[in-house]
Amino acid sequence: MWLEPVGIGIIPNLIVFVGAITIPGYLWTLAFYPEKNGLGRLERFAFSLLFSITFLPMAVLLENVLLGVPVKFLTVFSNTVVLGIISVLIYSIRVQKIKAPEFVYSFLPKVKKEESVGFLPKLFN
User: Fold this and answer.
1) What is the mean pLDDT of each successive set of 10 residues along the chain, which is 125 residues long?
2) Which residues, in sequence order, are CB contacts of 51 under 8 Å at separation 6+?
3) Helices H, strands E: what count in the chain?
4) 43/32 Cα distance (integer angstroms)
5) Is 116 helix (H, G, I), strand (E, B) or coil?
6) Where are the domains positioned within the chain?
7) How far apart are CA 9 and CA 1, in angstroms?
8) Residue 116 forms beta bridges with which residues?
9) Which DSSP category does 72 fall into?
10) Whole-angstrom distance, CA of residue 23 vs CA of residue 121
11) What is the pLDDT of residue 65?
12) Contacts for 36-41 with beta carbons within 8 Å, 24 or more apart?
């Protein structure tokens, strides 16, 4: 019988939890604030936590109440993926990596590629 060290089983769950609580929110900060001088690192991190804690439960709750979809792992995971895809599309449209009709830019202002934050953050200068 294989005995695992105490506490080692929590590590994968912790990694998933940290990813679920930061990655979707970070993608939304890119969609809302794609400019380099829009937010600092600490502000972007704080907003990523805030957006993840707000948008994901709200989407799951609305889906449950309005459509009657049960709250299960697959529901939460699919909502995480869909919210991530939507935010990446908004970011891509704002920094003009994806072309959109001109009326879209009336409510999603354009940002020049050189003035936008890279998709992956630079952790060290």
Assistant:
1) 63 78 87 82 88 88 90 85 89 83 80 72 53
2) 24, 25, 28, 29
3) 3, 0
4) 13
5) strand
6) 10-100
7) 16
8) 35
9) -
10) 12
11) 92
12) 36/115, 36/116, 36/117, 37/115, 38/117, 41/121
